[in-house]
Amino acid sequence: MVDITDRARKLREVAYYPGCALEGSGNGYDVSTRAIAYELGLKLQDVKDWNCCGAMEVKNIDPKIQTYLSSRVLSQAVNATKNNVVMAPCNGCYHNLKKAEYDLAHDAASREVVSTLSSKAGHKTYEAGQAETIHALDWIKDTIGEEGLRKRTKGRLAGMKIANYYGCMYVRPRHIFPEKDKGPGSESTSKPHFMDDLLAASGAENVEFPLKTACCGGAHTLSDSDTSTKLVLNILQAAEASGAEVIATECPTCHSGLEMHQIRAEKRFGKKTTVKILYFTQLLGLALGIKPRKLGIQQNISNSLEFIHEKGLT
Amino acid sequence: MPIHEKSLIRPENLRTHENLTIDGVDVSGHWSTFIESRVVTDYNEAMEDEIAALPGGEHIHRCWQCGSCTNSCTVNAIEPRFNPRYWIYLIRTGMESELLRDKDLIWQCVSCNKCTYACPRDVFPEGVMKATAHWLELKGHTPESPSTTFDKIFTDEIVQHGRIEDTKVLMKFLQKTKQPLLQDWLKQIAWNIGMRLPVKWGIKSAWSFVFHPKARRWSKARTAIQDYIIEKETEHKQALGLHKPKAANGNATQRKLHAAE
Ligand code: SF4
Ligand code: SF4
Q1: Mean pLDDT score of chain B
Q2: Count of A–B CB contacts within 8 Å?
Q3: What CATH number does the domain located at A4-135 have?
Q4: Which of A56, A173, A299 comes nearest B197 by C-beta?
Q5: Which residue of A has its CA nearest to B220?
Q6: Which of A44, A230, A263, B170 has its CA 20 to 30 A from that of A218?
Q7: Distance (Å) from CA B116 to ligand 1 centroid
Q8: In chain B, where are the structural domains located?
Q9: Taking the domain B47-138, which CATH number applies?
Q10: CA angle, corner A143, sides to A250 and A80, nearest 5?
Q11: How is chain A split into domains, by residue range?
């Protein structure tokens, strides 16, 4: 067993890679991540001169360019902090950095392309193992943990029924997440639970939600909107059928996909759903007693302010 | 390699006759529907190798047709004709004309990787779907799909600036695919956001239009990636036996990527 306190101490200061989505449509996620970091006394050191991780789209043009883009981010992150841990709240970024790490460790052709492009671009070539990539969920789980949250939140989320939605990129494909599926205490790729654990520790009641890792169709949110709307509607309806009042998200693409297609499902298919959609960092922030405005909740597309007020969390 | 799915008998291969007597037996009407027999003579033996030469298609030869990919597939659940296992079968046996019947479906893969998770043979079916969609476009069997258009606009933005500004990509995509900017649901979204942050949102969008978010010290990376894309495109075309059109005015890829603008 790793010494938890050492790990917690190590992660109190991490390199922070927000990525493009958190600067644009997913800004509420960025604002709430920074707000809870401040509240919890955790230090975020922004990665300097970062670039896009390559998202899904670059991979479709050529996977090795995506590996290069992500490895440039990693090379910028190395030395951003003493411990070389980079935290990415966006599932897409997190997934791509992990994938680059895996490819650089296992595939000579990827290493070659990355080293050629890095030297042409005039920066150090990132080598596998120089940095560790973690998700915002790992970050809170390993620093503050459930015990810490239990003490600090005083069960403020009591009586809130939450469906935890993780999406695809946090768990699939399995081989790029060697630390997952390692038995008790580790994250599961078939039934992830880190977000459930953190919210439960803050008093929330997690519902049994079968579509935790279903796909929201984010890749085709604009290019094949009807497919995305159907997939999202399925998730929203399943959450409501499970008795959830809120869907907790941990990815800006999933989050805005759910919000956009909730509206689109109503406009195009006449299917109205009323379940609220909030980032888990916004929920944790509320549990820590932070004001909704400081958590960017007004920047979300769907309006949850009244609901939060009714729950006595303002 | 068996084919199990009933849906593989296509409506156009079913024959019923209003009035038909064979050897004195009346076989008219619905009760004696025939399935047209099929003779395949035009196998495309190069198809598997060509798709394997494109990114994502590398491991197609490992498939043992268990069907786990189709079984777990997100798109298959809402569109039963979306069938990765079957397509892999067609590609490996070289049945091009049968594959082409589904050419307008293949690009719809949402890259959820449920198939990759389920596949016992590490075929990476998600990659095979992308390689196949790419192959269909390169061979001219399908026009550029909306998904590819989006990928190109997005990639071009990153190559140019190192970063993405999502409203800008959205606008470019809607323009390129000739969709109205003011669709009911997009209006509703803008309204929802605008209602709560009218001033800040307006300023922010205007700001990022004028000052595009950029990664600093990006120009060398830009050139390096552009060169690499050209090199790869040539390689793919060669693998597919396509002639590269003479690069009359220099840089074919840049033109192609810019055509997305
Ligand atoms: S990645 Fe594509 S083929 Fe694979 S399960 Fe998802 S939608 Fe289906
Ligand atoms: S799951 Fe893998 S081995 Fe099975 S049919 Fe699909 S690609 Fe082939």
Answers
A1: 83
A2: 164
A3: 1.20.1050.140
A4: A299
A5: A121
A6: A44
A7: 8
A8: 3-35, 47-138, 144-261
A9: 1.10.1060.10
A10: 80
A11: 4-135, 154-310
